[in-house]
Amino acid sequence: MSIANAIHASTVETYIESHLSTPDPAITHARETTHQHNIPSISLSPGQGRFLKMLASCTKAQNILELGTLGGHSTIWLSRAIKERGGKVTSIDINPLHRDVATENLRFAGVKVPEDVEILLGAGLDILPSLEKDIQSGVREPFDFVFIDADWPNQWRYFDYGVRLARGTGSVLFVDNAVAALLDYGVVGPEERDEGFVSLVEEVGRDERVEAVVVQTVGARSYDGFLMAVVN
Ligand SMILES: C[S@@+](CC[C@H](N)C(=O)[O-])C[C@H]1O[C@@H](n2cnc3c(N)ncnc32)[C@H](O)[C@@H]1O
To answer: Using a 6 Å CB cutoff, which residues line ligand 1?
Structure first.
């Protein structure tokens, strides 16, 4: 199968969604209100959201950390993954409008905020050290599943924190846009490499704490890929 067939990605995605997805008012509402507030349309697609939920469910995650809430679309999917086990999602975003819109969208979806989903406002690298302290002092549970989807230059720093904040063997880390970041910052491809950009893939490759894989993806919107890692 030639890569030239990737031109059909959009048509194939529409076909797949028409067969595998059912009307989901909470997801439709979240995506629409996010758009109405002029928040950029950079959330996962509904299919990717369902994949994330299925993955987190398979790992039997109880305590989930998300970096990058936006309008709460992916957060709704993650909250569905922990629903049966009565767990909790902690999501971090730097933008107060995103926090507010996400809170409304989660409540519309029937999710209790802050009981089931807690949204922490601030820069990821400012908040993560306090989460680490809370976990070390037993105030907070460590995380079983970490979803990283915030600013790309900090992907590795978030990943490093994610492993430190993880429960242990079998905990899962999932980083969106792992391939797009490589191309954008010139790590691979025709662009010149940005000085100072720390490559997630190179750092994870040296990291003996985890086993990792990058899966390249093609969808209606773009060519990209995610990195998934399991803690040893
Ligand atoms: C790609 S969007 C997240 C999409 C969301 N996960 C979804 O699929 O619905 C990235 C988010 O990261 C947030 N963000 C950017 N820089 C950040 C930082 N330094 N700390 C925390 N959040 C940040 C942005 O405000 C934005 O809401």
So the answer is: 42-44, 68-70, 73-74, 92-95, 98, 123-124, 149-151
